[in-house]
Amino acid sequence: MSTGEPVPRALDGTGPPLALDPRLPLHIHHFAPRLTLAVVSIARLRGAGDEVLRRLSDRHLTPREAAQAAAIPRARRRCEWLAGRLAVKHSVRAHHLRHWGSVVRGRAIDVDTVAGGMRAGKPVVNAPVEVGLSHSADLAVAACGPHAVGLDLEHQRTVPPLLARLLRAEGAPGRTGSRHPLLARMPLPLRWACKEAVLKHYGFGLRVDAGEVQLTGWASDGRFTWRAGADLLRHAPASGNGLTESWALEIDGYYLAVVSA
Q1: Residue 80 contacts by C-beta under 8 Å, 6 or more apart in sequence?
Q2: CATH number of 154-260
Q3: pTM exceeding 0.85
Q4: Were 78 and a residue from 1, 72, 160, 226 both cysteine, which residue would form a disulfide, CB within 3.0 to 4.6 Å?
């Protein structure tokens, strides 16, 4: 199922389109004026072999991160974890190079998560930027920018019947009106990705019900609009003002939503 819309190119119009291709080990994309995305192939890491993974870890992970990776017992989960850390580090490095013109080593970037509270698990780094991270199937995608960022990646899948009914309700003509006909055509996994991306932006994840993010529109360039429900407004009053950057894209069999202020 395809929207038929073009995939956004780099901001200056000269770069390649955003690719979500597991055959590519790494893909960097300057997604918006202040956002940089990094896509790392989990599939390539799974097939790389222990020696390659050891070299990548030695080159990019801090001692704390290396110890954390070593404590993950299952090799498959360890590859997913490493892909996520590499994606975050590459997004920060590329964002820093683009905006400040200098190169930062991967080991100089420490990726951690918020330890407790409503925002537990939200990724953070030891740099004056904000990051977001998502995994699905064979890819890990991270975003870096000056303000809080949320993103969610979903692979093509069958949505459970109950969730499908709830998601379809927001695309029904009676809910969206004639001004937003494209929303009725938005694939269900992409609608879910939009909701998760908004909640991740605020650091809540699914601690706040996804129904608190009510989709209201989807434009031909990929931008989507939404409004906050009462419970989301209670936890994040500023959510009532919306977000400057809210994108929903279908690319290469994946569904990606990215939001930032």
Answers
A1: 42, 135, 140
A2: 3.90.470
A3: yes
A4: 72
